Amino acid sequence: MTLLQFVQGPLWYFASAVFVLGVLWRLIAMVMIGKPRDLSAARTSSFGGGIKAILLHSVPHGGNLARTIYHFLVGYAFHIGLFVLVLFAAPHVRFIEERLLGWAWTPVPGWGFALAAQFAFAGLILLYIRRLTDPVMRKLSDWDDHIGTWLVFLVMLTGCLALQESHDGLRLIHLLSVEALMIYFPFSRLMHAFTFAFSRYNTGATYGRRGVTP
Amino acid sequence: MTDSASAKTSDGPNVQAAIDKFIAVTGSQVAAYLDACIHCGQCAQACHFHEVTHDPKYVPANKLVPITKVYKRHKAPFAALKRAIGLAPAELTADDLTEWQELLYDSCTMCGRCTVVCPMGIDIASIVGLSRQAMVAAGLGPADLMEAAENARTKGSPLGMTAQVLSDRIEWLADDFEVEIPLDKKKADVLVTLSSIEMMKYPDSVVAMARLMNASGVDWTFSSHGYEATNFGILSGKSDVAKIMIERLTGAAEELGAKTVIIPECGHAYGAMRWSAAGILGRPLPFEVLHITEFVAQQIKAGKLKLKKMGDAITYHDPCQVSRRGGAAEDARTILNAFASDFREMEPTGNNNWCCGGGGGVQAMASASDLRHKVFRIKTEQVDKTGAQSLVSACANCRLTMDESKVALDWHTDIKSLVELVADQLEDA
Ligand code: SF4
Ligand code: SF4
User: Whose CA is nearest to atom 2 of ligand 1?
Assistant: First the structure.
């Protein structure tokens, strides 16, 4: 078995299993801890408040824009760019069709890929510069924040390089970095991609009950 | 074992007791919060303690560090695996606890402002409340708050107002102000409670409440079996005292057969009884709980309170626990719009208001006074921009905080109680 075959075969299945089972276990175990029942007399619906909070906290609200506007613009640039790259880049769409689902959707054209990549890179780099320079973010950051950022950066960089599809070496490095990210993901703060919904819902439900969604 | 039994050992804070408590209070809701924080620091700008100092240690997310350390080392999914391979956070230390005492007590008013800004919607105020329980377990509850909580347990109120003092003061107020103030009726529809801050420092507020209750024509009383609405058990992190205070009010209301319990002008007291009490007792409350502003707004809407108009320019400070964390911001507006012809909103206001700096027990901590006076500068600037002659609030704790800071900052705008103002505007007053 060549290294490429190993990375495309057993290692890919292992990374996928760690990713899927790890994410599921982390969420299930978190929910299974359980919480005290809220027995207060509800003013309005908890469920409605929970859904409202998931939507409301997607955008800055209630003032205090000076800090949030940077994260809002740069954060969305990064996340949307990354989302487009992961799900709509032509090689990924082909991969999804051939190896995952048996069918897929239309990929973005070359210019779309380039635009998404620019947004994703600019967003990630600007967020990271802020993490390194803003005193508040420096105070809060730990090694997990740095590893997560560097892994995502590596995946994006090798992904762009791997567009030279004839070059197996570059594809190999890209796949390896993706697999490293997938294995790291469930154990890290990258889990915020899933936990954000639980966190927002919980607050929305608690306060929705009180007739207010902060 | 009561909370006070696990005090500081002779070697310093009882770290193990704190770890055990942090583990015990971390339910799935808190776990989701701790797992979701992305260390973005956006919450910094919402917190008055950060805004007036620009010291990064005051960023709200930093207040989550001790509980997060314990959760991620001991309770989170994969914690054992991470410990085994050395990737779990280091064990909590006595130094951590000592360093975070100021952050969890002096510099968090549990105002909930940071939650609005947080992209994850993390309810930092509630986590600070839970973390305080661990600090008490470690023996690191601030002396002032511990004393207030013990006074509440042994004397009935944080300021030492016993049932006898209550009865004496009610008699004095009823005589002096010629107002009927019922105490210990056998049966009543409505139990009215008070905060000892009002009774000891702003007794006019108690008289005003009595006038409003009488004018509304409801069957009401105070009770010497349950009168203190503030809950320093919750504020300090002493959960046994928290429960005792709630049991007293609930017991008094049940004894009277009351359908309604009215919480006076005190934001945290409202939060404690309206939103936390049933959970602490473990059963739904058999009566409704209303903040005095909710009750008065209801009476105004029902046409039972007739008010004269007042032309003074006034602005309103929302107590965080009544508005942003209580859901009753509109009731104060209903009242104000019923009598104040020149009511001016601050910017921001309502659910986005700035805290006075004294919530969450911070008012009662001498060590926090310099910091909270600095914080109050935000409020004075807000008020000055409105050009209002008076700053009105519906929380005696906010009022005391603001009165003290006003002197410290040499600021001259009048600070008033909404209940007192509205009682003065009663048509037959
Ligand atoms: S609850 Fe209020 S005081 Fe506490 S950290 Fe948040 S904004 Fe600051
Ligand atoms: S805004 Fe929320 S997610 Fe960001 S650092 Fe503060 S608490 Fe954490």
Answer: B111
Distance B103 CA to ligand 1 centre (A): 10
A-B Cβ pairs (cutoff 8 Å, strict) = 184
Q: Phi/psi at B395 (nearest 5 deg)?
A: -150, 120
Task: Give per-residue pLDDT as tens, B19-63.
Answer: 999 999 999 999 999 999 999 999 999 999 999 999 999 999 999
Residue B333 backbone phi and psi in degrees, to 5: -65, -40
Residue B177 distance to chain A (closest CA, Å): 37
Neighbours of B308 (CB within 10 A): 11
Strands B414-417 and B390-393, sheet pairing: parallel
Q: Collapsing DSSP states into helix, strand and coil, what is residue B136? A: helix
Per-position DSSP letters for A140-162, written without gaps between them: H--HHHHHHHHHHHHHHHHHHHT
Of B284, B299, B314, the last residue of a domain is: B299
- Number of Cβ within 10 Å of residue B426's Cβ equals 17
Predicted-assembly ipTM surpassing the 0.90 threshold? yes
- Considering the domain A45-208 in this protein, what is its CATH number? 1.20.950
The whole-model pTM stands at 0.95
The 10s digit of each residue's pLDDT in A195-205 is 999 999 999 99
Q: Of B299, B319, B350, which one is at a domain's C-terminal end?
A: B299
Q: Is A212 helix (H, G, I), strand (E, B) or coil?
A: coil
Mention every residue, 6+ apart, whose C-beta is less than 8 A from residue B108.
B49, B60, B63, B124, B125, B128, B360, B362
Verify whether the Cβ–Cβ distance A62 to B26 is below 8 Å. Answer: no
C-alpha to C-alpha distance for A197 and B36, rounded to whole angstroms:
9
> Is the CB of residue B103 below 6 angstroms from any atom belonging to ligand 1?
no
For chain B, say whether A32 makes contact (Cβ under 8 Å): yes
